[in-house]
TrEMBL record:
UniProt name for this protein: Ribosomal RNA small subunit methyltransferase G
Domain of life of the native organism: Bacteria
Family: Belongs to the methyltransferase superfamily. RNA methyltransferase RsmG family.
Keyword Cytoplasm: yes
Chief site of localization: cytoplasm
Record-linked CDD domains: AdoMet_MTases (cd02440)
GO terms of molecular function: rRNA (guanine-N7-)-methyltransferase activity
Region named Disordered: 216-235
Pfam families linked: GidB
InterPro entries to which the protein is assigned, alphabetical: rRNA_ssu_MeTfrase_G, SAM-dependent_MTases_sf
Annotated positions binding S-adenosyl-L-methionine: G73, L78, A123, E124, R141
Keyword Cytoplasm in annotation: yes
Native source species: Saccharopolyspora phatthalungensis
Length: 235
């Protein structure tokens, strides 16, 4: 398959390398089914590469080799599927609550022969947290404000793991606004970084928050400490 004749920008070869054909096929699937299945809007079809695939794939520069990554609210498979294509070394799971989108994700994974797990559920659900705990990184794209993302996603990370939230131009303001909620959820101060600098015309903005502690409950105590106290009382 010739990437350029199929509409892929030349920079796609830089980002996806020898796996560019898989990225092209993913674009074809989105163009064929995206609108009908409620995955992308009509205006997005002409900018799938720049706005969705490349924008998603470049955050791979924040992920160390062979790490565990959970994509929360994966939806159409963004950023999870482009990450899986660009970085086959990742141990990647896509988490999505809507059944029809889970079906879509499973179809895409099968079609592209990607080694990726798809799980139906929400990040805040107890069974999901038990099953998918201790991730190295959690990614989220257009899911929720930082206040809610921190509460949902930080408990899924190992200590020292990082939440990578793809955001827009107001990322710094959002990080400042929700700083207290992020700290209460167990997050560090956080920082705004740009991915794909020198590769993409418009780099991807990512809010990076490290999990530094367990979340606090309403009384201000760490939740892990509160659970241990309750267990001690029952002895």
């Amino acid at each position: 398959m010739n990437a350029l004749t199929e509409g892929a920008p030349s920079v796609a070869r830089v980002v996806f390398g020898e796996r560019l054909a898989l990225a092209e096929r993913f674009v074809e699937l989105l163009r064929e089914h995206g609108i009908q299945r409620g995955l992308v809007g009509p205006r997005e079809l002409d900018r799938l590469w720049e706005r969705h695939l490349l924008n998603s794939a470049v955050i791979a520069e924040l992920l160390p080799p062979n790490c565990r990554v959970l994509d929360v609210g994966s939806g159409a498979g963004l950023p999870g599927v482009p990450l899986a294509i660009a970085r086959p070394d990742l141990n990647l799971t896509l988490l999505e609550p809507m059944a029809r989108r889970v079906t879509w994700l499973q179809e895409v994974i099968t079609e592209l022969a990607l080694t990726v797990e798809v799980v139906r559920g929400r990040a805040e659900e107890g069974p999901v947290r038990e099953r998918l705990a201790d991730q190295d990184s959690v990614t989220a794209r257009a899911v929720a404000p930082m206040e809610r993302l921190a509460k949902w996603c930080l408990p899924l990370l190992r200590p020292g793991g990082r939440l990578l939230a793809m955001k827009g131009e107001s990322a710094a303001e959002e990080l400042d606004r929700d700083a207290a909620a992020i700290a209460a959820a167990g997050g560090g101060g956080g920082e705004v970084v740009s991915c794909g600098v020198g590769v993409l015309e418009v780099p991807t903005t990512v809010v990076v928050v490290e999990r530094v502690a367990a979340a606090r409950n309403a009384s201000g105590r760490r939740r892990d400490d509160a659970r241990r106290t309750r267990k001690d009382r029952g002895r």
